[in-house]
Design a protein that fits this description.
The protein is mainly alpha-helical and 313 residues long. It contains 14 helices and 3 strands. The chain has 2 domains: 102 residues, no CATH class; 189 residues, no CATH class.
């Protein structure tokens, strides 16, 4: 079965099935797949050699756009994820408290492996008793009142924020996007070539984008990251805390309180994260035996002054 190719036609046969069905793991992989597929299509008379070269060049450019997501693209993806989260959780209306976590968060971010993002880091408290925190791509970090209540001092709060910064520097949110969605976007764009998109193609790309947002949000809220991602974020948090001057044992303190407050079968960290016990074990392998956090009185005073309405309840 033949039909003449990517410049305004549909393509069938072995070459197209190869191109569409393989998942994409990187620019070089996509380029290799496309070269093989285009070569096969040309040899079968489905397309000309000139068209095969155009397909290879076009797909390579598309790969750089979709697989190596730019900081600007990550920013807009993160904004959409953030809007979805604030549609589910009401922001906490306390300017002093939100300013305080932003000051701490910005300080920690500067010491991370990704000190700057396209839109900058932003931190917001969510008005919920659930024990949860979320890091949307691009630098948007959300923590619930329930999570802040697990923090008995500033070092513990800093540990929560540093952990979420670890997720952002590791681009864990972007990695939640299903590879099949990337493949779909690549295929749509490659098949269209230099044509203007029609309603069908725009609808497919819009659906792919919405699905990508759903992938990230579902991972943050419902499924959680893999244990390896959570461990990476904890290890990043330890490094960030030490660089700034906070005690990484604050992370152990927070997890210990969380362990007591989490409800089995709940919708919060008990569902989406590894157990506090396993995380504490991994952290102590890095920092050594637990030592009590010695918080300066002035630091504790400012912590209570800013978050007293939350931690005092």
């Amino acid at each position: 079965m033949k039909s003449n190719a990517f410049a305004g036609m549909t393509v069938t046969g072995t070459a197209v099935l190869l191109f569409i069905s393989l998942s994409v793991s990187g620019c070089k992989t996509l380029e290799s797949i496309t070269q093989v597929g285009a070569s096969l299509a040309a040899s079968q008379g489905l397309i000309t050699e000139s068209q095969a070269q155009s397909i290879t060049k076009g797909a390579s450019a598309v790969a750089r756009t979709f697989e190596d997501i730019t900081p600007e693209q990550e920013y807009y993806i993160g904004r959409t994820v953030g809007a979805t989260l604030t549609g589910r959780y009401k922001p906490y209306n306390d300017e002093k408290a939100n300013y305080f976590i932003n000051i701490i968060g910005q300080t920690l971010a500067r010491a991370s492996a990704l000190p700057e993002t396209f839109g900058g880091y932003h931190f917001l408290i969510l008005d919920s008793d659930e024990i949860a925190a979320f890091a949307a791509p691009g630098g948007l970090i959300f923590v619930t009142r329930g999570m802040i209540r697990c923090c008995k001092h500033e070092d513990a709060l800093a540990a929560v924020l540093a952990h979420e910064i670890g997720h952002i520097q590791g681009k864990h949110g972007l990695q939640a996007i299903k590879k099949s969605r990337v493949t779909t976007a690549l295929t749509t764009l490659a098949l269209e070539g230099a044509k203007s998109f029609g309603k069908k193609e725009l609808a497919e790309l819009t659906s792919t984008f919405e699905g990508s947002i759903s992938d990230i949000t579902s991972t943050l809220v419902n499924n959680g990251y893999s244990r390896s991602f959570e461990r990476d974020a904890d290890m990043a948090a330890v490094s960030i805390l030490q660089a700034v001057g906070y005690d990484p044992n604050g992370l152990v303190d927070m997890l210990s309180v969380m362990k007591e407050q989490l409800k089995p079968g709940g919708l919060d960290f008990a569902k989406t994260h590894p157990s506090p016990e396993s995380r504490i074990s991994d952290i102590q392998k890095r920092i050594g035996k637990y030592a009590q956090v010695r918080t300066p009185a002035s630091r504790q005073a400012r912590f209570e002054a800013a978050l007293g309405k939350i931690v005092g309840n």
